[in-house]
Amino acid sequence: MSLEQLLAWIPAGHPDEALARRIDFARLPAHVAIIMDGNGRWAAQRHLPRVEGHRAGIDAVRDTVETGARLGLDVLTLYAFSVENWKRPASEINTLMLLLKRYLRSELNTLLTNNIRFRVIGRVEDLAPDIQDELNTAIERTAQKSGMLFNVALNYGGRAEIVDAARRAIEAGLRPEELDEERFASFLYTAGQPDPDLLIRTSGEMRVSNYLLWQIAYAEIYVTETLWPDFRRRHLLEAVLAYQKRERRYGGITPARAAIGAQ
């Protein structure tokens, strides 16, 4: 994507236009991962049932996915349902699954129009058959798209993913001396994808919540007080701008610091 393509989607004179013009398109994060948090608090602040926060969160998903595609991200991964979420009330879980089905049906054309490829990471086999059918339909329909890869983490846990990867390595007959970090990564759900450069968490919480534990080893973390249902294009652009101001060291030091140390 380019600035012109992004601006074509933003109304002239809109405040987001100024944000878009500040983006350095040569330094975009290849992979952005988001922990979508705050639906319950959003609903509580409005004296609404908790499920209304999840319903409102669908608008945030729609806006974020299209923004990511138009911005030119390679990969966007959203944390939709964790392995721990099964502890929630059955009514809330049923609503979440219903909303997922509705999203896939209503937004499939948007994914296709924006050249977005859809995938799911997590223990999908444990989901209800009708949910699996909806997911597989979206995966198959978008399989040939060449733009942004949109991952949804469903029935996902970072520790569970590492355990599953270890099991796959064992099943593949790998000997201990054959296993290194690169080979192990090939057994993760995200095999073949770049690790997240930027991890965004909404609602101000300062934890990673068992999300992409292997992959976020060197991700830049950006926390916003914005509750997920209120998250929009502007917030994603602000997160990317904050990312572009940082110096990524990967455990080393910057050239400037190295020069100081040599004096």
Structure in words:
Helix 3 crosses helix 4 and helix 4 (50-71) runs parallel beside helix 5 (90-113). Helix 6 (129-142) links the parallel strand 3 and strand 4. This protein has a 6-stranded parallel beta sheet, with helices on both faces. It has 10 helices and 6 strands; from the N terminus they run H-H-E-H-H-E-H-E-H-E-H-H-E-E-H-H. The model has no long low-confidence stretch (mean pLDDT 94). The protein has helices at residues 3-7, 15-22, 39-45, 50-71, 90-113, 129-142, 158-171, 181-185, 233-244, 255-262; strands spanning 31-35, 75-82, 117-121, 149-156, 198-201, 220-223. The radius of gyration is 19 Å and the shape is globular. The protein is α/β, with parallel strands linked by helices and 263 residues long. It has a domain at 31-156 and 189-246: Undecaprenyl pyrophosphate synthetase.
Q: What's this entry about, in short?
A:
The protein has 263 residues and is an alpha/beta fold. Helix content is 45%, strand content 13%.
Q: Find the CATH topology of the domain at 31-156 and 189-246.
A: Undecaprenyl pyrophosphate synthetase
Query: Low-confidence segments, ≥5 residues, pLDDT <50?
Result: none
Give the termini separation: 43 Å
Give the strand order of the largest sheet, numbering strands 1, 2, ... along the chain. 3-4-2-1-5-6
Supply the CATH superfamily name of the domain at 31-156 and 189-246. Answer: Decaprenyl diphosphate synthase-like
User: Which CATH architecture of the domain at 31-156 and 189-246 would you pick?
Assistant: 3-Layer(aba) Sandwich
What is the averaged pLDDT score? 94
Helix content: 40-55%
Shape: globular
CATH class of the domain at 31-156 and 189-246: Alpha Beta
